[in-house]
Amino acid sequence: MALDSLNEEKADPQWSSLQQKFPSNNGNEYREEIPDRLWSLWGSPLYDSEPKTETDCPLPNSATVPPGRLLARCVVACCVSNIVSLDEWNSQLLDRIMLYGSQYHDISCSALQRDKGEAELSLENLYTACILDKCAFWVYTEKVLCGKLYSKRKSLGSALSAFFNQHQRTGIVQLKDRTLAFGFMPECSSRGAYFMFNCQGKDHGTQGAPYLLRMRQLQKLLHCLLVALNERGRNVDFKIYKVWCVPRS
Length: 249
Hints:
Elements: H1 3-7, E1 31-34, E2 38-42, H2 67-83, H3 91-111, E3 129-132, E4 135-148, H4 156-165, E5 170-175, E6 178-185, E7 193-198, E8 211-215, H5 218-229, E9 237-247
Antiparallel strand pairs: 1-2, 2-8, 3-4, 4-9, 5-6, 5-9, 6-7, 7-8
Helix pairs in contact: 2-3, 4-5
Region (Disordered): 1-28
């Protein structure tokens, strides 16, 4: 995808909900952003500004969320996509992903005897055990691809094609301080669906709301990732990790 095509949308992303102050769903259902091409689903705005459980600590704004907590939430989103069809996702599930991701982050910090506020937690040292509702899983992550964002040979677009050609289903892309989860679910309606999950915080007017974008075409996934990454430099390094989970007996 040409960099010029993204510059045309620098002011406003293609999905319209991001232009609203508080995006919301109608009955917790997907909102159609582009007819028959792109759908969005939204969680609660300003999730990190209020405690959700007695043990959660209030955070003044989403900018204070440790990078490791964002990684953990993206890993949890990948795991949830493997056990819950995208057809059944709703806004409450997005909020639960935020909660379970925070718990997974804190467990990982405890296992490493590390302060919860430290930023050094990475995909390589997240705890390998994760609990979602009453389901327990072993979680595995591995860096499988890297490149330069708009390189002719190792661009993000070519990396995504290689990722799915290797029969990978869910992954995480990292670029500078940006972290996004993505994947392809073949069991969804209409011959499968790609998705992108973003819980990064206050960007493009999202007010800190986590959201899921769902699309049918790989090219549209690439476009949404590039817009969400919001990087105009051509030779910026990115990494892609595969994420998979195995039920614990």
